[in-house]
Design a protein that fits this description.
By secondary structure, the chain is α/β, with parallel strands linked by helices. It folds into 2 domains: about 5-115 and about 270-280, Aldehyde Oxidoreductase, domain 3 (Alpha-Beta Complex), CATH 3.90.1170.20; about 120-265, Alpha-Beta Barrel (TIM Barrel). The chain has helices spanning about 5-15, 20-25, 50-60, 85-115, 140-145, 165-170, 175-185, 200-205, 220-230, 250-255, and strands spanning about 35-40, 45, 65, 75, 80-85, 120, 125, 125-130, 150, 160-165, 190-195, 210-215, 235-240, 260, 275-280.
């Protein structure tokens, strides 16, 4: 997986240390003997952003080595990363790197739980996460989603054709005409239409939509929708969105959903990473 570019990582360091580390400077630790530290998981987790953490220490003037990659599932106590170098350099990068790994791993771990739950009778249903990330975190949120085993529903408005009811307020044509117009305008794109009822689903399925995004449908409503569209020569894919979580993913899979769309991982609590400092500059091993 790609790593956040250096200018963005430097901006994170500058945000935390805009005018130097006041405590380290006041204590005179610039002359202290080099030291080392380790990151260890305090809990089972799916790891993410260890590559960024490693690079943060290097940019701060230390050396670092990671022992796992983003997407790896680890047990409590497992070593994730080690760094060594001047004490001020370690303290400059320490908290930013730790927070980044904890936050991104929390998102990846929640995604992995949702992906694991999205199955029924051996049939796994793909999971996609939305673009409803905290502003400014999209790049790392996308990395965490991938690390957890899901895909991206859409990264932004430039990617996909997704017609919401709010778009349809302005239309004065039959659904079939809208579908034909959009397919002609963007022939390489699949057309997704968000619907809020079984009746809406039937209308847009018959009009030729490629995917129906079933907004806030219950599992029972999803099953009824799938059954109602079964006679169509070309049934659209059914993507369930709105309220999809790890605790109901299996029910949606059993109901016949083709895709689960969720924003739930973005509000997951961070994972817990323990940081251990050690005096001395023995090699990171």
């Amino acid at each position: 997986m790609n790593t956040l570019p250096d200018p963005l990582l430097l901006a994170l360091l500058h945000d935390d240390v805009p005018c130097g580390d006041l405590t380290t400077q006041a204590l005179g630790l610039a002359d202290a003997a080099p030291a080392r530290l380790e990151f260890r998981a305090r809990q089972a987790m799916t790891v993410c952003a260890v590559e960024e953490a490693e690079r943060l220490f290097v940019l701060a003037g230390a050396s670092a080595r990671r022992f796992v990659a983003s997407g790896r599932s680890v047990a409590a106590g497992e070593r994730l990363l080690a760094a060594q170098g001047p004490v001020p350099a370690l303290h400059t990068a320490w908290k930013t790197a730790q927070t980044l790994v904890e936050w991104a791993s929390g998102l990846a771990t929640a995604t992995a739980a949702l992906v694991a739950a999205a199955q029924h009778d051996g049939r796994r249903v793909p999971v996609a996460c939305t673009r409803k990330t905290v502003p400014g975190t999209k790049w790392l949120s996308a990395k965490a989603v991938r690390a957890g085993g899901a895909t991206l529903h859409r990264l932004g408005l430039s990617e996909t054709l997704l017609v919401f009811p709010e778009h349809r307020l302005y239309l004065r044509e039959a659904p079939a005409a809208t579908v034909a117009r959009l397919h002609a305008a963007e022939p390489e794109k699949k057309l997704v239409v968000e619907v809020c009822s079984g009746d809406d689903a039937a209308v847009w399925a018959e009009a030729g939509a490629d995917v129906l995004q079933l907004e806030k449908f219950s599992p029972e409503q999803v099953a009824a929708c799938r059954e109602g569209l079964a006679a169509l020569a070309r049934r659209p894919l059914l993507a369930v969105a709105g309220g999809v979580r790890a605790d109901n993913a299996a029910a949606y899979a059993a109901a016949g959903a083709d895709l689960l769309v969720s924003s739930a991982p973005y509000t997951a609590p961070p994972c817990d990473v323990r940081v251990e400092f050690h005096p001395g500059d023995s090699e990171v091993a």
